[in-house]
Specification:
It is built from 1 helix and no strands. With 55 residues, the chain is mostly helical.
Length: 55
């Protein structure tokens, strides 16, 4: 007789994934880059033009 039951529910793994953590706050550099991209997007018109990112 076959020991495997086709409708059996698999056991959870012994090493489950850790719970998801809340994302960390962006660094000042990341926030600055994000602000520059937001401004460049606002300055780009019409929408078919590439985003104008300047330094």
């Amino acid at each position: 007789m076959d020991d495997k039951v086709p409708h059996a529910v698999p056991r959870p793994s012994s090493n489950p994934e850790p719970p998801a953590r809340a994302p960390a706050a962006p660094s000042a550099e990341d926030q600055h880059s994000s602000d520059l991209l937001d401004e460049a997007l606002d300055e780009t018109f019409p929408a078919s033009d590439p985003v104008a990112v300047g330094h």
